[in-house]
Design brief:
This protein is an alpha/beta fold and 213 residues long. It is built from three helices and twelve strands.
Length: 213
């Protein structure tokens, strides 16, 4: 019985690993992903993602099709910059998550018939297109993307966009908030003292407390 359970768990882990798409940092190429309706997680592009939507590659030849999400990678020191940009028609907005927790979204833009083309290098510089810049700290990451606005995409009319990963410059890494770190440390110490039942230290009595009485 125990062996059967272990085999079952191993199969679950194997399926999860097969579904996760490993992406690389500093390839110099953009990853193209597909999407349909708002609120429905983005996919990779077929045939790299067998369950993905059909995509038109970048006209500049600077992209590859992303495979099945989630997209996993290890960020080197000092961190990684993630760029996300809409392409083709303007108006799509994306929410970005790392291990299921939302880390931000692309800029809100108005839906219009403005067309930036299929080259992500052009689209990310276009102020009418939704794009985003995110800094990820060193370590393991597991990305997923969900469109929150898709004025032109639908299950019958799929759309595509791009993301890019590169090693961050040291100047792009945000400085730690020292005040927040100190406050967190003090709160942790207070919680530890309370949990261990240690008495609070009383301030020493003033030698002048009873003077003149």
């Amino acid at each position: 019985m125990a062996l059967s359970r272990l085999v079952y768990l191993a199969l679950i882990v194997s399926v999860h690993c097969l579904r996760a798409g490993v992406v690389q940092v500093d390839t110099g190429l953009w990853y193209e992903f597909g999407f349909t309706s708002a609120g429905v997680s983005a996919t990779g592009c077929a045939p790299a993602d067998p369950g993905g939507v059909p995509c038109a590659p970048s006209s500049a030849g600077n992209s590859i099709f992303a495979d099945t999400p989630v997209w996993t990678f290890v960020a080197p020191n000092p961190g990684v910059v993630l760029l996300v940009t809409d392409a083709f028609l303007a108006g799509d907005i994306f929410s970005i998550a790392d291990f299921g927790s939302v880390i931000g979204s692309t800029f809100n833009v108005a839906a219009s018939d403005h067309f930036c083309g299929s080259d992500p290098e052009d689209c990310i510089l276009d102020p009418e297109m939704g794009s985003g810049f995110f800094v990820l700290l060193p370590g393991n990451h597991s990305l997923s993307i969900t469109p929150t606005a898709t004025p032109f995409a639908s299950p019958e009319r799929t759309d595509a966009a791009y993301f890019f990963l590169r090693t961050a410059d040291a100047s792009e890494i945000p400085e730690p908030n020292l005040g927040a770190l100190v406050a967190g440390f003090l709160a942790l110490c207070s919680a530890w003292r309370f949990s261990t039942g240690l008495p609070r230290r009383r301030p020493p009595e003033s030698p002048w407390r009873n003077w003149g009485t």
